[in-house]
Amino acid sequence: MRIWPICLALFAALHCAECKFDIEKGGLRIKLPASAAAEHSGGFEIALGNFGSPRYGGELLAKMVYVDPEAGYPSQCFPEACNYACEPFSEASPPVDLHSPDGPVILMVDRGPQDSPRGACKFAKKVWNAQQAGAAGVLVVNYEDHLTTMEAPKDADGQDEDTSYKFLKNITIPAAFIGKSNGDIMKDLLKRGEQVHAIFDWKDVLPKRSLVSWEFWTNSNDQCGPICDVQKEFIKEFVPVAHELEHGNWTRFTPHFILWICPISDRNTPECSSQCIHQGRYCSPDPDGDLHDGYTGKEVVQENLRQLCVYKLGNDSGRPWVWWEYVTKFAVQCSMDSSLYSQECAEQVWDDIGANSWSSRDALHECIGDIDADTRNEIFENEMDLQKGDSQTGEVYILPTIRINGGQYRGKLAYTEVLRALCAAFEDEQKQPPPVCLKVADDSCRPGSLGDAMCSRNIESGLTQCSNTFNGYTCTCGPGFLSTGLMDSNGYEICAKISTKTGMPTYAVILIVAGAIGIVAAACYAAYRLRIRSAMHQEIRDIMAQYMPLEDNEGGTLDPNAASRRPGQVHSQADSQA
């Protein structure tokens, strides 16, 4: 018997009145033809997929395509229609190729099919097929009017043993979900032969702060298939980045672990005893599902607690990044596959990361406490409260999960995507993001992108050159124009057009004018200095005249009243002159 599904179901039942499920939404702006633009000017709401590569901090401008005979694509797919994207588009008749010299394409596909004997194909499979055909993004249309989060596949679908890993690892385009009514609006426009362009907008999906806080919900169990493999690879790659962000005081990171519980009536059963600590209060599913062989859930939840203690002790000593070092070494040296997943191996890792130089094994043991005691564990109680969420954050029930500034990250668990999301969560006013962010800045100026399109339109102003910033792009003076160094009332750079009609380019004229302005400014400054010196000279003369007679520069005579002047009168006169 496996008790862990009961534990999970009970935990959800206990908290469903308090918890909420968040759909992380992004912006979808549609550049509609004039006939429909006024009616749908507000754009449409989309739900971000929990896999793929959303461009946090950036945008994607692309042409919308729907593979259907009525929308200009007569290709036939078998056994399901092409609009479901269940089969490779290279096998369609004729094949569908979405690579376009006119710029990127967002492919709109339908959820399902519902009535197929084979069942609906997975979201990730649709996106994979679209990516292989050349799509830059995918918009999945629901068969009803509500949004849901498209999850990554947990296991192989039976057709290809590495399907799950391939989807999790290799999908490199963003995917989003839209309700039926909004999807039908765009389908109708495409079927009428209208040109529809879409902008996926990820700039404001996550809350922004000057100091970014983020959480990583994980598990020390390494026998959960492709998801565990991806998670271990991510942690290993992210160690130096986490160290740089924490050490530079850019971010505040906290690890978390999902917990299960056993029903009170079953806490003394062998099933609960093998999967829980603290008399059934805190549990983890058996790694291999076999209660009588292999590792137990009790060993997993104990290691989860140990890793939280490593973080706590490291954070208390000003080393919050040591958790990453410990977890990486533990995954390599203490894996379940090598039969070394144990307390002994864990404490050897503790020694290897030099933890005894800033803490001790005794402190680690004290933090973990007596795992068999019939008492509450405050660290795990805090984890359960955070797991439930509140009015601002949804419940965490999927592993792995990342929250950034309280918002839930959506996308694949990979170095580039997670770092891009973290960098996008810094406040826009922060002019200098962490240096590591420059490694993943989205190319907003690539041909066909929003920046490229918007800057190239500003012909009259001269702001035709697209320049990348992490949070998007800025238009600067392009070829044939030169910056004047001035800004207009809207804060945009003022460009001057280069011309040779007068025998010299405009930039030379600008330099001459600037030089003349400089000369005038210097003359004014010299006159100002002369006046100040004159005033100071007069003040000194007046002060000295209190004690000795001075010749009058104008007439060469003595001032007969100089000795009778009072200091207050002299200074008052000098102040008025100044």
From TrEMBL:
Segment forming the signal sequence: 1-19
Cellular compartment(s): Endomembrane system; Membrane
Keywords attached to this entry: Calcium, EGF-like domain, Glycoprotein, Membrane, Repeat, Signal, Transmembrane, Transmembrane helix
Domain of life (superkingdom): Eukaryota
Membrane topology, as annotated: Single-pass membrane protein; Single-pass type I membrane protein
Pfam families given in the database record: PA (PF02225), VSR_TRX (PF25011)
UniProt keyword Repeat present: yes
Record-annotated PA domain positions: 82-184
Gene Ontology CC terms: endomembrane system; membrane
SUPFAM superfamilies recorded: PA domain (SSF52025)
Coiled-coil boundaries: none
Positions of the Vacuolar sorting receptor thioredoxin-like domain: 212-423
Chief site of localization: membrane
Chain spans, region Disordered: 555-578
Transmembrane feature ranges: 507-528
Identification of the protein by name: Vacuolar-sorting receptor 1
Organism lineage string: Eukaryota, Viridiplantae, Chlorophyta, core chlorophytes, Trebouxiophyceae
